[in-house]
Design goal:
alpha/beta, single chain, about 150 residues
Length: about 150
């Protein structure tokens, strides 16, 4: 197992890697991220609390890690399970979508997002519309089964 603490984007994070699983814990952040390489896709579980005013910043850092891992392992599908409290503001959605393009997650990538928070699922459906209008293959779901069927189908 590889484990280290590192300073990234003004935040300390703890990174562990073992058996195709990346565990990222923000030592001063409000959520945890677990990324697992599965057969044909990357599964990303995000849990915790959205911090008002920092929603885009936190998400952007996570998507950069997702892009890096996808490129390292030649993966082109990402299943993201969000178990976050709080809402995703409209301006944060625009910033996040712009970052997806900057890190190269457009084109042949399929991004399936399962939002377990009913209130923020509406926010992510808006973000989905913005992303699809910009050429991304992305969908938002309320359950993992439908997300996997779409993403792997």
């Amino acid at each position: 197992m590889l484990a280290r603490d590192t300073y990234k984007q003004n935040h300390w994070i703890h990174l562990e890697y073992s058996n195709s699983i990346y565990q990222i814990r923000g030592l001063d952040m409000a959520y945890d991220i677990r990324m697992e390489i599965r057969e044909g896709y990357l599964r990303v579980d995000v849990s915790g609390k959205r911090e008002p005013g920092k929603e885009a910043e936190r998400s952007i850092e996570s998507w950069k890690d997702v892009a890096r891992i996808c490129k390292e392992h030649d993966l082109h599908a990402v299943l993201t399970i969000l178990n976050l409290s709080g809402r995703l503001p409209v301006f944060a959605a625009y910033d996040i979508i712009s970052t997806l393009s900057d890190v190269g997650l457009r084109g042949r990538y399929k991004l399936a997002v399962v939002d377990l928070n009913d209130a923020s699922r509406e926010d992510n459906l808006f973000a989905e519309t913005v992303a699809r209008n910009r050429g991304f293959s992305v969908r938002t779901f309320s359950n993992e089964e439908d997300a996997l069927a779409w993403m792997l189908g």
